């Protein structure tokens, strides 16, 4: 669903630029692996204290044409904290977490 992510980010860049002006921004954006029409919307989130999976042990499965699917080992049952980025994704929302917002000093 790369097209979904591309559409979301293109719209988000325009929205952020319009609402925040020229102040540099650093955002963490997570887009669920869904078609655009199945997204529940966009929400501002916080970062979860840990990921529900291990990035240290991915398994790559060849999909042909040089593409791979990545799967990570789950730690076990994980309940995402409400309002966190994985919670939003699990509910079909695009999560937007502001990591850095700077304002010009003058």
Descriptive notes:
The chain has 106 residues and is an alpha+beta fold. The chain has 2 helices and 5 strands, in the order αββββαβ. The chain has helices at residues 2-20, 85-90; strands at residues 25-30, 41-44, 59-64, 67-71, 93-101. Strands 1-5-2 form a 3-stranded mixed beta sheet. Strand 3 and strand 4 form a beta hairpin. It is globular. The termini are far apart. The mean pLDDT is 81.
How would you summarize the topology of this molecule?
Layout: H1 2-20, E1 25-30, E2 41-44, E3 59-64, E4 67-71, H2 85-90, E5 93-101
Parallel strand pairs: 2-5
Antiparallel strand pairs: 1-5, 3-4
Short description:
The chain has 2 helices and 5 strands.
Oligomer: single chain
Global morphology: globular
Instruction: Give a count of the beta strands, DSSP E runs of length 2 or more.
Output: 5
SSE string: HEEEEHE
Structural class: alpha+beta
Q: What is the end-to-end distance?
A: 43 Å
What ranges have pLDDT less than 50 throughout 5 or more consecutive residues? none
Structural Rg: 16 Å
Percent of residues in helices comes to 10-25%
- The proportion of strand residues reads 25-35%
**What is the makeup of the main sheet?**
3 strands, mixed
Mean pLDDT: 81
Looking across the biggest beta sheet, what order are the strands in?
A: 1-5-2
How many H/I helical runs?
Answer: 2
